Amino acid sequence: MRWLGLAALLAAVPAAAQLSSSEQRMKTTVDAEQGRTLGLLERMVNQNSGSQNPAGVEKVAAMVRAELEPLGFRVRWIPLPQTGRAGHLTATHSGKRGTKRLLLIGHLDTVFEPDSPFQRWVREGDKGFGPGASDNKGGVAVMIASLRAMHAAGTLKPANVTVFLTGDEEDPGSPQRVARADLIAAGKEADAALDFEGLAQEGGRDMGSVARRSVNDWTLTIRARGAHSSGVFSAGSGFGANYELARIIDAFRREVAEPSLTFNVGLIAGGTKAQLDAGGIRAEATGKTNIIAADAVARGDLRALSQEQIDRAKAKMKAIVAQSLGGVTEARIEFEDGYPPMAPSAGNRALLDRLNVVNRDLGLSLMAPLDPLKRGAGDISFVAADVDGLVGLGPSSTGDHTPAERVDIPSMWRQATRAAILMSRLSRERR
């Protein structure tokens, strides 16, 4: 697949480019259906769908099914009880043969579980507060609004579109190979992937996202000889587990860093005894000031822009752990699979170029690529190795993942119009 560069694309469009009649119809439909779209968003927000609330996730999926089936989508629920999560909703619209196949990605779950005090939609002017108001129920509402606009304009009928909404994006089920197998398979069948998570902004300007970093967790475990503290630093007693842990973590900071790579230390414990709970989110330690620490543990994450960068970082971290202060009996680091990276490929940048042609035709400012350090990991990364992708077609917001989460309502109409026109144009192209 070859994409034209932005300069060539813009040069091919008249300076005063106008929307086609069908594109103008899409814009008009998005605006006319604002009340309907906000009503859907309110209903979804008011239904709790924390990642660990399978019944709630399925109820939100039912709301989405009711929107997609009348548009001609064949909707399927993929239950995944073996992963400890609800499952995924996928919907397929078959159009003209031989044209590009689009994959639209979002998620049904939120970080707010049923015991959270943050449960209801509240509107204050142009802002809407609520769990998932933006992440990602706002994005799902934008996706549906754009598809309804395409349907009204007649551009959905010939389009080949697959919608894939995961039920565990915020807290993925395990094993990961099962939890993401269907999404990966959908990516292999697509020609372009569009992610409806939130729109990034800088200085009040909308930004395009062509990359997302990975996230992998790591656990560091140290075992050392426990002894009376009077012998610390000696050949017989050594330095203990806490000094070894401090050496390793500080060496990570000094020796592993490179551009676009970060590694956080989120949890530390050390003492005569130190251990993590089964979920790895709590630690318990006991000890005294006059006893050399025998146990130490730490957990953190690693975020990178490419698999090559991940491999380099892991190799450096393992080498640092393999060095040792005196008295250490065991030091090991273990890595857990997480979200893979979405590298900033030429194909991804070309999709942003196509979106910028839409922006120009709508009279909107062009969108520069967002620094991937300013965006977290997401589900589109699981298909990034197989298909070109673009992130951030959902609404803009603030306070995501906190009780202050609020969606910028006017951005929903801008985003739905952009998406509808972009998808209509892409779906007409030959594969």
Automatic annotation (TrEMBL):
All copies of domain Peptidase M20 dimerisation, residue ranges: 211-324
Keywords, sorted A to Z: Hydrolase, Metal-binding, Signal, Zinc
Signal peptide: 1-17
Cofactor(s) essential for the protein: Zn(2+)
Matching InterPro entries: ArgE/DapE_CS (IPR001261), Bact_exopeptidase_dim_dom (IPR036264), Peptidase_M20 (IPR002933), Peptidase_M20_dimer (IPR011650), Peptidase_M20A (IPR050072)
Protein name (Swiss-Prot/TrEMBL): M20 family metallopeptidase
Species in which this protein is naturally found: Sphingomonas rosea
Highest classification ranks of the organism: Bacteria, Pseudomonadati, Pseudomonadota, Alphaproteobacteria, Sphingomonadales
